[in-house]
Structure of Nuclear transport factor 2 family protein:
Amino acid sequence: MNTAAHDATAIAQRYIAVWNETDAARRAALIEAGWTTDAHYVDPIAQASGHEQISALVGAVHQRYPGFRFNLLGKADAHGDHLRFSWTLGPSGAEDLIQGTDFAQVDSGKLRSVTGFLDKVPVGA
């Protein structure tokens, strides 16, 4: 049994909270609490390094998809300092439009790097 499963879920939930936070100051505080200072993020569309760039990237997603919410899909899984979880994105209260899977490296409970993959993206999204 993976003893990191509980931590995996908590870290993934904090990650999703960052992506759902529309207030820049509250988002910055969440990033400060949950990401290392040298953290970086990359997916097929974007990349960001450091807290400010990660927050700006999240803000850009809110501008592109106003009113959309991220949710965890399934169960987060951890192995050593690696984390894997899937998520959905869609209008609040409606069926998701976008799905993805993220792989992360964790350092002392904080995200050091996240590599995102897009599993379901409708044309034009």
The longest helix spans residues 5-20. The two ends are 39 Å apart (CA to CA).
